[in-house]
Design brief:
This protein has about 80 residues and is an alpha/beta fold. About 45% of the residues lie in helices and about 15% in strands.
């Protein structure tokens, strides 16, 4: 039997989601530990995307990883 830790499971899920992301996407981010892991994986990738964080904590994490922050009221299409 194979066991995965919660952290490794979240990283596997984040990388799977990252497979669907392309350059120039605008991504709305929720909150919580899974989103935090996704932001880390996204930030470590070479993708050029913008994000709209839904919480202050996720915004700080996105900034820490060098992601471009956008605002909901300044866009009309979210990928």
């Amino acid at each position: 039997m194979i066991y995965f830790s919660l952290s490794s499971s979240m990283e596997i899920a984040a990388k799977k989601i990252l497979d669907e992301v392309e350059d120039d996407f605008l991504i709305a981010l929720g909150s919580g530990s899974s989103v935090t892991k996704f932001v880390e994986v996204l930030g470590d990738s070479n993708l050029k995307v913008s994000v709209i964080p839904s919480s202050y904590q996720i915004r700080l994490k996105a900034e820490e990883y060098g992601l471009t922050i956008s605002h909901l009221n300044s866009t009309s299409n979210i990928d």
